[in-house]
Amino acid sequence: MTHCEDLNRNMARAPAALLRAISVFSGKSVAFWRIFAAIAALLAAPAVPAHAQGAVKAVYGDWQIRCDTPAGAQNEQCALIQSVVAEDRSNAGLTVIILKTADQKSKLMRVVAPLGVLLPSGLGLKLDDKDVGRAGFVRCLPNGCVAEIVMDDALLGQLRSAKTATFIIFETPEEGIGFPLSLKGLGDGYDKLP
């Protein structure tokens, strides 16, 4: 099984409710974080059959578009999602979620990193080995810490043109862990997000 097949298999386990929580609550409300925490705990639970999960609408390269209709919403909400595991630490995973807010005015990237990260160091990002910058963590939940980036057109353009991204977390100020992420299909997938 290839690394990408393994990641796609793992993504099939993600509950549809996670997508609903991420898509509907674009702010940092208490309700969002409570729902996100409950759903995040489900991610750590044993897998259930894929037919019981939210809909994978399409696969673009190494990315999935997952959609669901949140309770009380009239429209389906979708996000572009990929999960990876550190090459040298099979117990450390990272999930990247890209979405457009319901009002279509903002583009967000949410990254769920493993617990134990050094929060003040934030989340680093390199594209094709070029340092792009860091984002702060906004909240830690029982299964990970969340960094949120409001993406502008320049960052989206960089993501489209790069081949690989490496997200870097720190356990100590000196020790970074890199999570290589394929950008294959990101541009096409993003263009298909409703």
Architecture overview:
This protein is 25% helix and 41% strand. With 194 residues, the protein is an alpha+beta fold.
Which structural traits does this protein have?
globular; 11 strands; 25% helix; 41% strand; alpha+beta; 194 residues; single chain; 5 helices
Q: In brief, what are we looking at here?
A:
The protein has five helices and eleven strands; from the N terminus they run H-H-H-E-E-E-E-E-E-E-E-E-H-E-E-H.
Quaternary organisation of the protein chains: single chain
| Residues in helices, as a percent range | 10-25%
Number of helices: 5
How much is the radius of gyration in Å?
16 Å
Shape descriptor reads globular
Instruction: Compute the average pLDDT.
Output: 76
Order of helices and strands: HHHEEEEEEEEEHEEH
Q: Please mark out the parts with pLDDT under 50 across 5 or more consecutive residues, or reply none.
A: 1-53
Spatial strand sequence of the major β-sheet: 1-2-3-4-5-9-8
Which sheet architecture does the biggest sheet show? 7 strands, antiparallel
β-strand number: 11
Strand content: 35-45%
Structural class: alpha+beta
Tell me the span between the first and last alpha carbons. Answer: 32 Å
